[in-house]
Amino acid sequence: MKPFLIIDPGHGGNDPGGGSNKLWMEKDLNLKISLYQYERYRQLGVPVMLTRRNDQTLTPSQRTKIIRESGAVYCHSNHINAGGGDGAEVIHSIYGGKKMAEAIAKGLKDSGQNIRRVFTRTLPGKSKQDYYYMNRETGSVVTNIIEYGFADSNRDDITQLSLYYKTYAEAVVKAFCEFAGYSYQIGKTNKLSPKKERKRYLHLPVSASSWRVYPLNAVPVKGNEKGYLNPRKFGGLRYEVIGSTQDHVYIIETRDFGKVQIYAHPKTNALLSEK
Ligand SMILES: [Zn+2]
Predict the structure, then answer these.
(1) Is 124 exposed, middle or buried (0-12, 13-18, 19+ CB in 10 A)?
(2) What is the tens place of the pLDDT at every residue in 100-143?
(3) 3-state helix/strand/coil string of 47-97
(4) DSSP E strand stretches across 60-187
(5) Does the keyword Ribonucleoprotein apply (predicted)?
(6) 29 alpha carbon – ligand 1 mean position (Å)
(7) Per-residue confidence (pLDDT) for residue 196, from 0 to 100
(8) How far, in Å, CA of 126 to CA of 105, rounded?
(9) Is 191 helix (H, G, I), strand (E, B) or coil?
(10) Left (φ > 0), alpha (ψ -120 to 50) or beta: where does 272 sit?
């Protein structure tokens, strides 16, 4: 069966993508978002395919050929932005109109991400040609380039994308289904609101007088500290875990340093609990 929608995880293989930082490579996050959406669309009965399903290199011409020849009506081209802004952007072709792009942007906004802009752009001096090849070379497939946020944001995109990329991926699924006339239901295993997840708390033992914390946009290793917590001084410290960036590395919000990463392997005597 021909797909109705094709999902394109931007970049891949030897092209990591510019929307990368110390926490992720753009190609990997694009793929995670896309694989998540692919499974959700299948659950919802939307005929769907992917341009790549692993860490594969695709040249622009290979990529656009897959899309043109897919028979799909629509394409999501998933990306993470760079360049120092904050918020999501949706780029549509000068052909095909902006309605789908606006629906996607509204979905992202409703899920908690701010929208920087919905726009279209032409090649310099060529008012009839789209600037971006994903818009220009994908034939009759209505392609939206979705930039979920900025990898180098100095506002909240790095935290938001680390914690909530699935929420944003789901928001696009919901917006697309509603726009295209497919009935939408929340999946069994995913929750739209990250706040509904079971809370966990991190306890730092009173025996420790100095505990490193790291900024969200740095690798949590010695030398990158944002500061030190002093559990002893407070008779031990307790924080709600608001995310995790890798095994045994958690995101907590501290009074003095704001949202930070903290390394808390069981052998450090830190304790995780639901209270
Ligand atoms: Zn990209």
Answers:
(1) exposed
(2) 999 999 999 999 999 999 999 999 999 999 999 999 999 999 99
(3) CEEECCCCCCCCCHHHHHHHHHHCCCCEEEEEEEECCCCCCEEEECCCCCC
(4) 74-81, 88-91, 115-119, 122-123, 126-130, 142-150
(5) no
(6) 10
(7) 52
(8) 27
(9) coil
(10) beta
pLDDT value of residue 195: 47
**CA 52 / ligand 1 centre spacing (Å):** 14
Alpha carbons within 13 angstroms on the beta-carbon side of residue 222 total: 0
Domains, the chain, in order of start with CATH, read 5-180 (3.40.630.40), 198-273 (2.30.30.40)
- Report d(CA 127, CA 130) in Å as an integer: 8
Q: Give the C-alpha separation, 107 to 31, whole Å.
A: 20
Please give the Cα distance from 232 to 135 (Å, whole number): 58
> Mean pLDDT across the stretch 168-194?
84
- For the cut 70, the answer to whether the pLDDT of residue 235 exceeds it is yes
- The answer to whether residue 267 scores a pLDDT higher than 90 is no
CA of 215 to the centre of ligand 1 (A): 24
Ligand 1 center–CA 80 separation, angstroms = 5
Report the interhelical angle of 99-110 vs 157-180 (nearest 10°): 130
Give the model confidence (pLDDT) of 69-108 as tens digits: 999 999 999 999 999 999 999 999 999 889 999 999 999 9
